[in-house]
Amino acid sequence: MNISVEQLSKRYWLKDPAPQTFQQALAQMVGVLRRGKPFWALRDVSFAIGEGESVGIIGRNGAGKSTLLRLICNLGRPTSGQARVTGRVAALLELGVGFHPHLSGRENLYVSAVVAGLRRAEVAARYADIVRFAEIETFIDQPLRTYSSGMKMRLAFAVAMHVDPKILIVDEALAVGDAQFQQKCVDRIAEFRSAGVTLLLVSHDMQMVRRFCTRALWLQGGELVADGPAEEVTAAYERVVCPLEAKRTDVEVVHDAVELLESEAKA
Questions:
Q1: pTM for this entry
Q2: Which of the following CATH numbers is that of domain 1-13+40-87+167-179+198-248: 3.40.50.300, 3.40.190.10, 2.40.30.260, 3.40.50.1970?
Q3: Among candidates 42, 73, 88, which has minimal Cα distance to 197?
Q4: Rounded distance, CA 153 to CA 172, Å?
Q5: For residue 135, what is the enclosing H or E element?
Q6: Which CATH number among 3.40.30, 1.10.287, 1.10.8, 1.25.40 corresponds to the domain 96-165?
Q7: What is the pLDDT of residues 160-178, one digit of tens each?
């Protein structure tokens, strides 16, 4: 197995509001209220992904998708359980992860590629191809802090595409740049699939999931509620979730979030 996730859970503590009375302030000082309310981003999630599988992860905002990917990429510690990965990973997570704003694009390119597992000589040999793919030749020696968000993600994507990964993890990173660049990214991912690279894709675009993935995991409220063929799971998601989302107001979304936090605090 390339990826094995066993009873993975992640709990965060939400801060209590500022104390309104002397008694609340005193309780906070002595630690009674210091930790706030618990919020479970993930709860007892388990699955395994074999070599060469293409798996989509779907769910509403706040379902735990990005938290799951971060733990798989060892960018945080789980509260309980474990995630094990075998093979070189190229991960495209939230914008700017692994980049330093005061280094130039060239320096960030080298650092990211070396961290991903390439030797410096290998990076030098692929440097021109990476920069050409990212389409930032004119700006490669400028500080990253001067880059637009699209330029940063194009650089991150270009590095990930050239480190020979065994596992490619993508978190909503395909909406980068113009239509031509997006198509170039889609074509490269398709090449990786054909070459047997394991793909883990988070997306709200069910068509994208069906196009690239043969299997889908559906997260809801931090729990894995469905794991099966991509066509079946995405169809069920569209039947159940999409109509509800279309009818929900912002007030209803906030109300549900508050109810969730209160129920977790009582658990």
A1: 0.78
A2: 3.40.50.300
A3: 88
A4: 11
A5: none
A6: 1.10.8
A7: 889 889 999 988 766 556 7
- What's the rounded Cα separation, in Å, for the pair 85 and 69? 11
The answer to whether 78 and 7 have CB atoms below 8 angstroms apart is no
Per-residue pLDDT tens over the stretch 26-85: 666 655 545 568 899 999 999 999 999 999 999 998 899 989 999 999 888 999 999 999
Take residue 214 and report the two structure tokens written for it: 């043969």
- Cα angle: 120, vertex 76, 259; to 5 degrees: 145
Q: Which long-range contacts (CB under 8 A, 24 or more apart) does 106-109 make?
A: 106/140, 106/141, 108/144, 108/155, 109/140, 109/155, 109/159
Type of residue at 137 = E
d(CA 30, CA 22) in angstroms, rounded, equals 13
β-bridge mates for residue 200, sequence order: 55, 169
Q: Count how many residues are written for the chain.
A: 267
Residues sharing a CB contact under 8 Å with residue 153, sequence separation 6 or more, in sequence order:
92, 95, 173, 176, 177
Q: What are 187-231's pLDDT values in tens digits?
A: 888 899 899 999 999 998 899 999 999 999 999 999 999 999 999
Domain boundaries, the chain: 1-13+40-87+167-179+198-248, 96-165
d(CA 45, CA 264): 17
